[in-house]
């Protein structure tokens, strides 16, 4: 069951009435000197409440909402309130962030294994408002020896996702715009896409687990961490100059869970920014 956004807005959003995790995230953002409007508080609160009611909240391990036109606010994770680090040329606009395509990226300062992701149980996602027109650019990822990267190439308007297997990539001939989510769960890999007109499965495969291990390098957004060694070693590569409104990762999600999650993420991003998905 979902609370409607209208019902949430009608409550008035006194700080004391907020979900505890929503309240903590809003407090962390405002502590950076960033203002959070009443409408933004309402949609943030609605996201947390629906995520918990729909049962996928505990599967989310990192979720960043870089909409605040502030590096310090954009670096805060909605799940654990930890902070990542922006490096190089990154533009912080109202509603999204954008790398300069040569030096800019975001270091989440954590790894997939540290958050219980395994060869058989993992998810990754991002919100792409625009995408790079150059091939082999990575919205996010980590690893080189056993790739665990999630990137798109625009040649043929393809999305390619790798999870710990260089030869077992899942490819979709679909434009990589909107909310793109990948899940590895119960022996099946899926890529889903949600845009304004709806959600669809754009790639699926069932196969045995592949790869020797999950990469131990720190996860990056706006690029891939092209190494497979314990931080602080980092080799950013495949810088992506698209506009991104969010990104993160977690444990594997079912089709039902991803349907609810990406709708919640859409409502969160659109409600907090006034922008719309492609």
Name the features.
17 strands, disordered N terminus, eight-stranded antiparallel β-sheet, 30% strand, single chain, 5 helices, seven-stranded antiparallel β-sheet, alpha+beta, Jelly Rolls
* Main sheet: strands, sense, barrel: 8 strands, antiparallel
Order of helices and strands: HHHEHEEEEEEEEEEEEEEEEH
**Rg measurement, Å:** 17 Å
What count of structural domains? Answer: 1
**Helical coverage, percent range:** 10-25%
Beta strand %: 25-35%
Outline, from the CA principal axes?
A: globular
- Count, helices: 5
CATH level 1 name: Mainly Beta
The number of strands is: 17
Distance between the termini: 26 Å
Low-confidence runs of at least 5 consecutive residues = 1-12
Tell me the CATH topology. Answer: Jelly Rolls
Q: Per CATH, which architecture?
A: Sandwich
Overall mean pLDDT score?
88
- Structural classification: alpha+beta
What's the short story on this structure?
By secondary structure, the chain is α+β, with helices and mostly antiparallel strands. The chain has a single domain (59-260), classed as Jelly Rolls, CATH 2.60.120. The protein has helices at residues 5-10, 20-30, 38-53, 71-74, 255-273; strands at 60-64, 85-87, 90-93, 96-99, 105-107, 122-128, 137-142, 148-153, 158-161, 170-172, 178-185, 188-195, 198-206, 220-221, 224-225, 236-237, 243-250.
